[in-house]
Design brief:
alpha/beta; binds magnesium ion
C-alpha cells in the first residue's frame, strides 16, 4: 500500500498559524471564518500584502504538526503498513530546504520523501499512490479525475459541503481509514 499526504493543513496547521499572525493586526479573523481556499476571499478587507506576508512567515516558521500526525505516521511505518511516507506539496521550490528541515525535525525516525509540485497528479499517478490526503477541493477533484488514486479530504472550514470524496476529521480518522482499507 502507498499513501501520500499534503503538507499544509494536513501535516502542519499552516492556516491556523497564518491566522495567528494576522490576529496581531486583525483580532476578529478566525480559522472557521475561512470558507473558501484563500483567506483573501473570506476576509476581503485585509490588504493582500498582509496576507502574503503572513503566509510566507507561517510557512517559514511552522514547527509543530497537527495533533497525532507523528504518532500515526510512526504507527504506519512500525507496523509495516507502508514502507515510505510520500509528501506532495505545492509549496514553492524556494521553500524546499526549509520544508525538509521542518519535516525531518518531526519525523527523524520515519522514512519519507517530499515532492514540490504545482500539479500533484502526475507524481501521484507515477508513484501509484492508493490514497492521498488533501485539504483542497480543487486538488482532490484533479486527483479523482486523472489518477487511480483515491483522494481523501482532511476536514477544514474551506472544504465543507463537499460530498463526493471520502473525508476524515483528524489523524485518528486517517489511521482508521487506512487500517479499514487493509481489513
Ligand atoms: Mg494543503
Amino acid at each position: 500500500m502507498k499513501i501520500g499526504f499534503d503538507i499544509d493543513d494536513v501535516f502542519f496547521p499552516t492556516a491556523q498559524n497564518i491566522v495567528n499572525i494576522i490576529n496581531t493586526l486583525y483580532p476578529d479573523v478566525l480559522l472557521e471564518g475561512i470558507k473558501t481556499y484563500g483567506i483573501e476571499e473570506s476576509y476581503t478587507y485585509i490588504p493582500k500584502y498582509i496576507i502574503d506576508n503572513a503566509v510566507e512567515r507561517a510557512v517559514e516558521e511552522t514547527e509543530e504538526p497537527i495533533e497525532d500526525a507523528i504518532d500515526v505516521l510512526r504507527y504506519f511505518i512500525n507496523n509495516k503498513i507502508v514502507s515510505l511516507i510520500y509528501f506532495i506539496t505545492s509549496r514553492p521550490e524556494n521553500t524546499r530546504q526549509r520544508t525538509l528541515e521542518q519535516i525531518k525535525s518531526n519525523l527523524s525516525d520515519v522514512p519519507f520523501v517530499i515532492y514540490h509540485k504545482k500539479d500533484k497528479t502526475n507524481t501521484i499517478d507515477r508513484l501509484g499512490l492508493d490514497y492521498f490526503f488533501e485539504d483542497r477541493v480543487d486538488h482532490s477533484e484533479k486527483i479523482a479525475d486523472s489518477t487511480k488514486c483515491t483522494p481523501v479530504l482532511f476536514d477544514r472550514p474551506w472544504n465543507q459541503n463537499v460530498y463526493e470524496f471520502h473525508r476524515v476529521e483528524d489523524w485518528k480518522g486517517i489511521c482508521s481509514l487506512v487500517i479499514n482499507h487493509l481489513a
